[in-house]
Automatic annotation (TrEMBL):
The keyword Kinase applies. SUPFAM superfamilies: Acetyl-CoA synthetase-like (SSF56801), Protein kinase-like (PK-like) (SSF56112). Keywords: Kinase, Serine/threonine-protein kinase, Transferase. It comes from the Bacteria. This is Serine/threonine protein kinase. InterPro entries: AMP-bd_C_sf, Kinase-like_dom_sf. GO terms for molecular function: protein serine/threonine kinase activity.
Length: 374
């Protein structure tokens, strides 16, 4: 894919294209490698040259907010480092970790302690993130610590006035909501009080502004961001799952979303069944049903990876669909999961958007080591 025209001269010798992470009406986000003064590093590129004309002005505004916040937070080590910025693109460091909704840090008190520390560091220099209700904006690094990402809505305050205090309070309240979901036993009495009391601005926003925001983004912009999955994951996936389950040879199915260079968001269906040839039949059935567009990829697997409660581990499936194979190993919790990874890598479908990330998985009975190339 060609680079943004205004920044191509500066980026062409320094950026190596990798995996598409996300594409929406506000930007395109890719993972790749960047040649910095200290050498080549894993990095993330946000670019504006592919956004629709009608969303360019708000996209440009969000781009500017992120650029300012990352520059101010450069030495805090609580989020991505700003490596380079141009007119229509910026490059930030890659954080080796996974989003909160994939990491699922149940009972991990240390993680939420580090998250609170990270938030204090941001607030100390006058940055309020303003978008921490989204679990995908919280990362769990391979070191177990919390990191923040996606600073498009962040605001840099010059003084710690009333607006700053309100925004900082809401940042903290959203963090505590996540803590309540994953480590409720660790909430203090003071934290429970904060959770129970929204700021006036937040209350007014929920009653008025949020409704307008949803009407504009979901109606006018046709944009829904459920963990990066968009409208297809929200609206189409449940219907497709029900249609696939009607086949008597299907034991279970899980559908996850992945960023697609052609359509923006693609769907990847993992179908638990015994017959590999079932894929073609399912695709024909879905097409004949005249419902939502069939998933871009349908993969039949002998068994889905499951958690202790027996639910499919969609966080692992998500990383496979996104070609983020090097991030899977820290999430392996059993030999069964490792055996599953070996089988799924041998027959996975999303081979169009690959990169040279290495994933090495300790053996279940035999070793699994795969190096992505393309």
């Amino acid at each position: 894919m060609s680079l943004p025209r205004d920044d191509a001269a500066a980026l062409s010798a320094r950026w190596t294209e990798g995996v598409l992470l996300k594409r929406d009406v506000f930007s395109t986000v890719e993972r790749g490698r960047f040649r910095s003064d200290a050498g080549e590093v894993d990095a993330v590129l946000r670019r504006l040259d592919q956004v629709p004309w009608w969303s360019y002005i708000p996209a440009r505004h969000l781009f500017g907010r992120e650029r300012r916040a990352l520059a101010l937070a450069r030495d805090l080590h609580v989020g991505p480092e700003l490596l380079w910025a141009g007119k229509q693109a910026l490059v930030r460091g890659f954080i080796n970790g996974v989003a909160l909704h994939l990491a699922k840090p149940h009972g991990d008190v240390a993680y939420f302690r580090s998250a609170k520390t990270a938030l204090r560091k941001l607030h100390r220099v006058g940055i309020c993130h303003n978008d921490l209700a989204k679990e995908q904006n919280w990362l769990r690094g391979t070191d177990g610590r919390a990191y923040l990402t996606d600073f498009q809505l962040a605001h840099c305050f010059k003084t710690r006035g009333r607006l700053f205090r309100i925004a900082a309070y809401e940042d903290l309240r959203h963090l505590l909501k996540h803590k309540r979901s994953y480590a409720p036993q660790a909430l203090t009495a003071k934290e429970r009080q904060i959770l129970a009391r929204k700021s006036l601005v937040a209350s007014v926003w929920l009653m008025t502004g949020k409704k307008v925001y949803r009407a504009v983004t979901r109606g006018l912009f046709n944009f829904t961001d459920r963990e990066g999955g968009g409208r297809r994951l929200v609206n189409d996936a449940p219907v497709l799952i029900e249609l696939i389950r009607k086949n008597p040879d299907v034991r279970d199915v899980a559908i996850v979303a992945f960023a697609d260079r052609r359509s923006g968001v693609g769907l990847y269906a993992f179908v638990e069944a015994d017959q590999a040839a079932l894929e073609a039949r399912l695709r024909n059935d879905l097409t004949a049903a005249k419902g939502p567009r069939p998933p871009e990829h349908i993969q039949v697997v002998q068994a889905l990876p499951r958690d202790a409660a027996g639910k499919p581990r969609t966080e692992i499936l998500q990383l496979v669909a996104m070609n983020q194979l090097d991030l899977i190993e820290p999430m392996m919790t059993s030999e069964t999961d490792r055996a599953f990874l070996k089988s799924i890598l041998e027959s996975r479908k999303n081979l169009r958007d690959r990169f040279n990330f290495e994933a090495t998985v300790p053996p279940a009975s035999t070793g699994v080591s795969t190096r992505e190339g393309g």
